[in-house]
Specification:
- The structure holds 2 protein chains of 2 kinds.
- Helices cover 46% and strands 13% of the residues of chain A.
- Chain A is α+β, with helices and mostly antiparallel strands.
- Chain A has 3 domains: 85 residues, no CATH class; 107 residues, Butyryl-CoA Dehydrogenase, subunit A, domain 2 (Beta Barrel); 134 residues, Butyryl-CoA Dehydrogenase, subunit A, domain 3.
- In chain A, strand 2 and strand 3 form a beta hairpin.
- Chain B has a domain of 147 residues: Butyryl-CoA Dehydrogenase, subunit A, domain 3, CATH 1.20.140.
- Helix content of chain B is 55%, strand content 14%.
- The chains are: A alpha+beta, B alpha+beta.
- Chains A and B meet through helix 8, helix 9, helix 10 and helix 12 of A and helix 7, strand 10, helix 8, helix 9 and helix 11 of B.
Chain lengths: 392, 352
């Protein structure tokens, strides 16, 4: 058992850090330090393409599809250095982390050729059309309908909470293709172009004033017959495969972004004197401990190549980081005091720490709420009985 | 990335777990609790038959080599059974101190008997330690396993001193202690003869790190065992026509225990590796491990009582052994608040 990375991996780290910091000092200095997902979206699409041109778009993918065949460790290192350089989150994270890997696993050769190089090049931005007004935690109860009509799929229904749909090119959709089917049966997984008359995207404003997510309406929306991944009626399995990538490598590198947030709180506490308050000191220490344990938990997961055993660290990771970050937001507000409750912006826009306080309320909801995570841990990790289902 | 057990470490873990599960039974632990809080036969078997007592002590000093990761593995397994053993005093504190800070003579004089389990040692932290030549004056009300010890290591501002427990001027009085698996004694030393540890500073540093990691690892093992036993109970016990483990409130509480335990596991082995590797943040890691794992142990042990209902409140059920040991782990060698305060000073840049 050893801490840390190998010398070769540390060399790779230096290479990543050099390149990334140089970009943030140069051509892309204007996006450095942005902390919301929506600000300067057009420039950030250009950044995606810039990453792609230099082969940094999807380093974990095979070379033939625009990747670098990077090892897991290298991918984590890249994600860490990316955050350390103060670069804003990837606007194509759904394409890179969810759509791409799903295509790599279940897509046909033709689909791979069609999509993967463009995702890696930052030219095709994907969003995720899973949730519906009546299907959130219970994803299997989606109602959006898909039927084959003259060699095309016609889709009707509504998705909701679709992050970044307004700046995306494509959406993947879980839709009910078998009339009268219920639950996970009779679903099909479709990839659809957003720019068409049958799709209407309306922003939904969030508690931080931003509008990262949207309602996405489908009214006779079309896509070619071969737009599906997997078989007709096999959509649930595809969706589950996709969600298994959600605890992806980038989340293992995200402690570096969290590090920046905690450091900002520590600086604020020193500057306004709250760092002498014993209770604040306890919470800073707890936050520091939690952050370190997240990192070593991630390293444990990555070191564990024995996938036969249920990896406790992997099962508990989402609720761990989400709850940690939510507490961090609360700590930020206690450190800032009333100064944290007013903004210098003209509009309802927030600097990093108050925005962290507001945004982190979503961390414990998306990607499986904390309650759903606890169900999963209890059922998969501890082998306890599954939740009963209602009739509806 | 190799932040997982090696094959050898996995083997040590399996051996230690099997040994403690088979031998550190509730009956034997309870018999020890009625006496000095040590299962002597178990300790001798551990030291002599299992041959793991020299782990964490350099081979040059008569030990088995290896490091704190392996010592933590053993403490985790012992903690899971709340075993009544002088692992903390004899091995983590005194053997480590002598191995790191003792002269060659001191090592040969004491280590073989300590590692063989023939001599039991206890550590006396005395704020009033004073030395007049080789005559020692010191007192402490909370010397773990003090009544069972033949050797005392007395530490304070005036250095670290080895004192025989039967030397004239040493008085030891057992105290009825909440955690009967590691009872405290009141030790008063008035002019007894002592021998200074050759390098008291090095000895104290090694002993402190090893002991904090052992306490943290015991807490980890204890917490996991509290969870495992509660999960097992939740599968059997039926109320309202369902097993209690099917109630969501109950499931979620168990899930929360697992979330804490997985972090405690990262903490313990991070700290053990960091000290073994001489990492820059080793001290931070040790403070983090002790505070986090002891608090996790307490939380899981108290949930164990709650989630067992009335039976969990009885003397006959083992839940109280877990609960009391966990409480002791929290208090010993600085409580969670104290360790977190050390971390706060570090991250706020107040230390050099
Ligand atoms: C910022 C943000 C971005 C998002 N982006 C996307 C996206 O891009 N694409 C997409 O498809 N979706 C997205 N989502 C949606 C997200 O996946 C859902 O919000 C989430 O799955 C919860 O579903 P819901 O909102 O319908 O809440 P519900 O499922 O209705 O839950 C309401 C409450 O009930 C609890 N609850 C539900 N079921 C159980 C149970 N079995 N046991 C105990 N408690 C339960 C929940 O924990 C929650 O507290 C996003 C959400 C947010 C907040």
């Amino acid at each position: 058992m050893k801490l840390g990375f190998s010398a070769a991996e540390e060399e790779f780290r230096a290479e990543c850090a050099d390149w990334l910091t140089a970009q943030m000092a140069g051509e892309f200095a204007d996006i450095k330090g942005i902390t919301t997902l929506t600000e300067k979206a057009e420039r950030r699409k250009e950044w995606e393409q810039h990453l792609g041109e230099h082969g940094w778009g999807c380093i974990g993918w095979p070379k033939v599809w625009g990747g670098r065949d990077a090892s897991l460790a290298q991918q984590v290192i890249f994600a860490e250095e990316y955050a350390r350089a103060g670069i804003p989150g990837r606007v194509n994270h759904i394409g890179i982390e969810l759509a791409g890997p799903t295509l790599l696993t279940l897509g046909t050769e033709e689909q791979k050729r069609r999509f993967l190089p463009d995702i890696a090049a930052g030219k095709t931005i994907f969003c995720q059309g899973f949730s519906e007004p009546n299907a959130g935690s219970d994803l299997a109860s989606v109602r959006t309908k898909a039927r084959l009509e003259n060699g095309e799929w016609a889709v009707d229904g509504q998705k909701i909470w679709t992050s970044l749909a307004h700046i995306s090119d494509w959406i993947f959709v879980v839709a009910r293709s078998e009339e009268g089917s219920k639950g996970p049966k009779g679903l099909t997984f479709l990839m659809m172009e957003l720019d068409q008359p049958g799709i209407d995207i309306r922003p939904i404003r969030q508690i931080n004033g931003d509008a990262e997510f949207n309602e996405t309406f489908f009214d006779g929306a079309r896509c070619p017959e071969d737009s599906l991944i997997g078989a007709v009626g096999d959509g649930w399995r595809v969706a589950m495969t996709l969600l298994s990538f959600e605890r992806g490598v980038s989340t293992l590198g995200q402690q570096m972004a969290f590090r920046n947030e905690l450091d900002a709180i520590i600086e604020a506490a020193k500057a306004n004197g709250t760092s002498t308050d014993p209770l604040i000191r306890q919470r800073i220490a707890k936050a520091e401990i939690g952050l370190r344990l997240m990192r070593y938990g991630a390293l444990r997961m990555l070191s564990n190549t024995d996938h036969a055993s249920v990896d406790g660290a992997a099962l508990t990771y989402k609720i761990q980081w989400a709850s940690w970050r939510r507490s961090l937001g609360e700590l930020a507000m206690d450190v800032l005091g009333q100064a944290g409750e007013v903004t210098d912006h003209d509009g309802y826009e927030w600097p990093m720490l108050p925005n962290l306080f507001l945004y982190s309320r979503a961390d414990t909801i998306y990607g499986g709420t904390n309650q759903i995570q606890r169900n999963l841990i209890a059922e998969r990790g501890l082998g306890l009985p599954r939740e009963p289902r209602g009739e509806a | 990335m190799d932040f997982v057990f090696t094959d050898e470490q996995r083997m040590i873990a399996e051996t230690a777990q099997a040994f403690f599960t088979a031998n550190a039974t509730s009956e034997r632990t309870r018999a020890a609790m009625a006496a000095e809080g040590i299962d002597h036969a178990l300790w001798l078997a551990f030291c002599q038959e299992l041959g793991l007592s020299g782990i964490g002590v350099p081979e040059a000093a008569g030990g088995a080599g290896l490091g704190l990761v392996e010592l933590a593995i053993i403490a985790e397994a012992a903690g899971a059974q709340v075993a009544a053993l002088p692992l903390l005093g004899s091995l983590a504190l005194v053997a480590q101190a002598i191995a790191a800070g003792g002269s060659d003579e001191q090592r040969t004089a004491w280590l073989p008997a300590l590692l063989a389990g023939e001599t039991i040692a206890a550590h006396v932290t005395a704020t009033d330690l004073a030395a007049d030549g080789n005559r020692i004056f010191a007192s402490s009300a909370s010397v773990a396993h003090g009544s069972a010890a033949q050797l005392l290591l007395v530490s304070g501002a005036a250095g670290s001193w080895l004192v025989r427990a039967d030397a004239p001027g040493v008085s030891v009085a057992a105290q009825t202690t909440m955690d009967q698996t590691r009872p405290y004694a009141r030790v008063t030393i008035t002019g007894a003869e002592g021998e200074p540890l050759a390098d008291g500073g090095a000895g104290a540093q090694a002993a402190t790190n090893a002991a904090l990691i052992v306490l943290a690892a015991e807490g980890l093992g204890l917490a996991q065992a509290a969870l495992d036993r509660t999960v097992a109970y939740s599968r059997d016990r039926v109320q309202f026509g369902r097993t209690i483990g099917s109630f969501q409130a109950y499931k979620h509480r168990l899930a929360d225990m697992m979330v804490e335990i997985e972090q405690a596991r990262s903490a313990v082995y991070w700290a053990a590796c960091a000290v073994d590797e001489g990492a820059e943040d080793a001290q931070l890691a040790v403070h983090a491990a002790k505070s986090f794992a002891a608090d996790t142990a307490f939380r899981c042990a108290s949930d164990m009582i709650q989630l067992h209902g009335g039976i969990g409140f009885t003397w006959d059920h083992d839940a109280h052994l877990f609960f009391k040991r966990a409480r002791a782990l929290q208090t010993m060698m600085g409580n969670g608040d104290w360790h977190r305060e050390q971390i706060a000073a570090m991250v706020l840049g107040e230390t050099e």
